Structures are given as C-alpha cells and as structure tokens.
Amino acid sequence: MRSQPSAELSKHPGSSGNVTAGDGASLETALHAERAQRKKDLATSLRIFGKLGFSHGAIGHMTARDPVRPELFWVNPYRRAFATIMPEDLLLADARGSVVEGSGILNGPAYLIHARIHEARPDVVSAAHAHSPAGVAWSSTGRLLDPISQDSCALFERQAIYREFGGIIDNDAEATAVAEHLGEQPFLILQNHGILTAAPTVRAAFWWFVNMDRSCRVQLLAESSRHGPVLIPQAIARRTASVALDLGFADECFEALADEWT
Ligand SMILES: [Zn+2]
Predict the structure, then answer these.
(1) φ and ψ at residue 196, rounded to 5 degrees
(2) How many Å apart are CA 63 and CA 74, to the nearest integer?
C-alpha cells in the first residue's frame, strides 16, 4: 500500500480533522484523532445523503481510508439506512472483503469497488457512490456533464465515464475496470448505473457528490426546456473548476449542510 498517512495529515489538516503530527502530540495520537474525525465525517455524510434522498433501499456506499492502517477503509454496513448511521456503526474492512472491526454485513460491490479505488489511488481518502435519481438518470444518457452553470464547472475536464454496464458489480475484474476508468479524476459516471466521487478528504467526497448530483439534475432540467442550456466558455469553466474544487470550500459546504440536516 502506497498511502502516506502523515503526508495526508499535513496536507489537509483542517478538512479532515484539526490534527497535525508536529504540534507535540505523538504521531500515533494524531493518527487516532484523525481516525475519529474521518469516522465522524463519514457518518455525518451518510446521514445527510439519506436526508437528501440519495439512498435507495440497501444500495449505496461511502468509504474513508483508515489513517492508522491505510490499507483498510471504513464503510457503511449493508442494509442500514444512510440516515441512521453513526460513527460506531461503521465497519473497518480490508481489500479482500473481511470485516476487521465492527459488526454488520459488508456489501460485496462496496468493498470490491472501493478497495480497488483506494488501492489504485493513494491520494484518495474517501469515495462515495449512490444511486441518486438524478445521477442514475444522467448516467443513462452516456454523456459527460457540460459546463452549463457555475456549479457544474467543478466537473469540467475532471470527469470520466465507465460505459460497460454488466449488471451488479460482483467480481474483481469489473471493479478493477471501474477504478481504471476513474483514472486520476475525482468524478466518475457509471453508465446506466449512477455516479461516484473520489477525493482527498471525506468532506470533499461528500460535497463533490452533492454537487455532482445537483449538476445532473440541473442539466436534465435545462435540456428539457425549449431552448436548452448555453455552454460556458472553456477557459472560464476551467478557471471556475479550480476554485470550485478547493478543499476549504468543500469543508464550508459540508458544515453548512451538517448544520441544516444533522
Ligand atoms: Zn451502484
């Protein structure tokens, strides 16, 4: 595993927990504090997802890489409503699908997809995937999202698409293909399936998913109008994306939604 937890801590101290390893605390103490913060942020994100209507029965999963053991990740248990998840409900899983800590059922597609992404992308602390209605509807178009609003500029030149829908992802080869299609991007459209985000903090994976879902909904609405949307020029979309993906901004949006929904 190539992840470097201490580097992650120093790069994004405010966005995944106000913890640094150089303030006199031992590295181990800092890593355990970061673990608690990531679990708290992950549970909060899932509860808000539930309240925003992103859950669909037992479907959907979000993970956070464990800073103490970076080859493992925390994930919501299968068959538990997003809106009820608390930090103590989360499962700690390994890449082979074993539950290392916590009690509950580990969803097969959850560990397959997320394990391959966390392995392939040491920069990814968190990944989110759900079958939100707008995300699924947009995914069925087989198109990338266009820069038609300030919000959707966040995805400009940062999204990928996986076109090979082959049913429920239940094998390692397909999960690996999903991770390969994501590549270095933060946004993935799974054609005829849904959407996925991957980010260097839990809060960014959360906020980017919320914004991606909103962008799907807005483009579906705009394209249903008589005139259709006008595209934002590429240079402006590119400049806007770099601001929209700021991790501090993701923190602020996470906190605003947490104030509203939890
Ligand atoms: Zn899915």
Answers:
(1) -150, 145
(2) 5
Burial 206-219 (b: 16+ CB within 10 A, else e): bbbbbbbbbbbbbb
pLDDT tens string 43-85: 999 999 999 999 998 899 999 999 999 999 999 999 999 999 9
Determine the distance separating the centroid of ligand 1 and the alpha carbon of 112, expressed in angstroms: 11
Whole-prediction pTM value?
Answer: 0.90
Question: pLDDT tens-digit profile of 189-230?
Answer: 999 999 999 999 999 999 999 999 999 999 999 999 999 999
Unique residue bearing structure tokens 């995944």: 16
Distance 62 CA to ligand 1 centre (A): 11
Q: Say how many Å lie between the CA of residue 71 and the centre of ligand 1.
A: 23
Cα(135) to centroid(ligand 1), Å: 11
Go through the domains of the chain in sequence order and give each one's CATH number: 5-261 (3.40.225.10)
**Which tokens is 120 given?**
């392939």
Amino acid at residue number 204: A
How far is ligand 1, taken at its centre, from the CA of residue 114, in Å? 11
